[in-house]
């Protein structure tokens, strides 16, 4: 997924507006020397204007019911290398940035590091995060529905949303936190499909018992209804993967620099490492952040086979979307290679 853009969407640029009557909320900004350790200091961030809260309905979870993690917040004058080390120490893939007035100024993600720094040949130790951050990130309120937050991220093609409660930025929401709610929605749809099939089957049995040509008539609707149920409520990955789907491929002997350029050119945040189009491993922008930049390795000299995840779990074109979501949710990862019947990479 791409990083956030603020075009056409409500942003938290209003987070800079302060009044003498309002008390500035506080965020924790993590400071460290060389990245080997860190201490927390308070950073003041002014209140944003929260968008209208959506009413909670149908017992669905709100954002504040998710396991939210406190956002890592650092000054925008920090170098990319130091930022990556702090992100690695916290095992996070995004960081909020503050300006010289301790006001929220932007966000930097692992994809920004891979595509705006490494792919462009910039040196992490000399590049400030302010040069590659996304300014005025879109946010979500804590009382918004989790599924609505997911829809906002999917539509905007980004993975992270600052969470605001009572005018304070309290956390940074990752799209993985919303997968459970997406799975729940699809499972409910599948149950509805099963109920529909059962209802039609019951009606058909009544027709069959009426003595009006039940022999061939009663069996005909069953396969049709089952097929309809599978396609509408349990669609396979093949229904959303087209022949023109872009698959970012690199070879095991390519350097990380080449992989990052492939991510940038195809606007993705992961590549498949393949030999003869057979899947050998995957490399994500988070891997580049954690395993290359944070370790101060050279992207030009480090081969992808040295830092990739080998033999990743894969799905097939026949795997249902629901099963694919379960695989990612249970495995706690966001990247699932899809192979065709011959084992070749078909999508990501």
Query: How would you sum up the major sheet?
Result: 4 strands, mixed
CATH C-level category of the largest domain: Alpha Beta
**How many helix segments?**
10
Instruction: Note the run of SSEs as H and E.
Output: EEEHEEHEEHEEHHHEHEEHHEEHEE
Beta-strand content: 15-25%
Describe the protein's architecture and organization.
- This protein is of the alpha/beta class and 348 residues long.
- It folds into three domains: 13-179, CBS-domain (Roll), CATH 3.10.580; 182-238; 241-347, CBS-domain.
- It contains ten helices and 16 strands.
- The strands form five sheets. It has a four-stranded mixed β-sheet with strand order 3-4-5-6. Strands 10-11-12-13 form a four-stranded mixed β-sheet.
- The radius of gyration is 24 Å and the shape is flat.
- The model is unreliable at 5-57 and 209-221 (pLDDT under 50).
Quickly list its features:
348 residues; alpha/beta; CBS-domain; 3 domains; four-stranded mixed beta sheet; 16 strands; flat
Set out the fold topology.
Layout: E1 26-32, E2 38-44, E3 73-75, H1 80-90, E4 94-98, E5 104-109, H2 110-118, E6 134-135, E7 140-141, H3 146-156, E8 160-165, E9 168-174, H4 179-208, H5 214-217, H6 221-233, E10 249-250, H7 256-266, E11 270-275, E12 278-284, H8 285-293, H9 304-307, E13 309-310, E14 315-316, H10 321-331, E15 338-339, E16 345-347
Parallel strand pairs: 3-4, 7-8, 10-11, 14-15
Antiparallel strand pairs: 1-2, 4-5, 5-6, 8-9, 11-12, 12-13, 15-16
Helix pairs in contact: 2-7, 2-8, 4-6, 4-10
């Amino acid at each position: 997924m791409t990083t956030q853009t603020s075009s056409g969407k409500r942003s938290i640029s209003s987070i800079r507006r302060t009044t003498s009557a309002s008390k500035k909320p506080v965020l924790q900004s993590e400071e460290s020397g060389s990245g080997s350790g860190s201490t927390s200091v308070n950073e003041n961030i002014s209140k944003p204007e929260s968008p209208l809260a959506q009413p909670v309905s149908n017992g669905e979870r709100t954002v504040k019911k998710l396991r939210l993690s406190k956002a890592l917040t650092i000054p925008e004058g920090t170098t990319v290398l130091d930022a990556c080390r702090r992100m690695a120490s916290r095992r996070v893939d995004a960081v909020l940035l503050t300006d010289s007035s301790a006001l929220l100024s932007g966000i930097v993600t692992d994809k920004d590091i891979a595509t705006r720094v490494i792919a462009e040949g910039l040196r992490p130790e000399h590049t400030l995060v302010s040069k590659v951050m996304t300014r005025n990130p879109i946010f979500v309120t804590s009382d918004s529905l989790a599924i609505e937050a997911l829809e906002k991220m999917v539509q905007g093609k980004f993975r992270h949303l600052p969470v605001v409660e009572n005018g304070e930025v309290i956390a940074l929401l990752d799209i993985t936190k919303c997968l459970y709610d997406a799975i729940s929605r699809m499972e409910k749809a599948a149950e509805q499909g099963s109920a529909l099939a059962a209802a039609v089957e019951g009606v058909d049995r009544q027709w069959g018992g009426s003595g009006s040509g039940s022999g061939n008539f009663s069996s005909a609707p069953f396969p049709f209804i089952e097929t309809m149920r599978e396609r509408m409520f349990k669609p396979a990955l093949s229904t959303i993967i087209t022949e023109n789907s872009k698959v970012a491929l690199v070879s095991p002997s390519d350097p990380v620099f080449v992989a990052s350029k492939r991510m940038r050119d195809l606007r993705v945040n992961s590549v498949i490492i393949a030999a003869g189009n057979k899947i050998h491993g995957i490399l994500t922008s988070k891997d580049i952040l954690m395993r290359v930049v944070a370790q101060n390795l050279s992207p030009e000299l480090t081969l992808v086979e040295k830092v990739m995840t080998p033999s990743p779990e894969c799905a097939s074109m026949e795997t249902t979307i629901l099963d694919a979501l379960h695989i990612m949710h249970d495995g706690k990862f966001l990247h699932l290679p899809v192979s065709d019947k011959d084992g070749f990479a078909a999508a990501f």
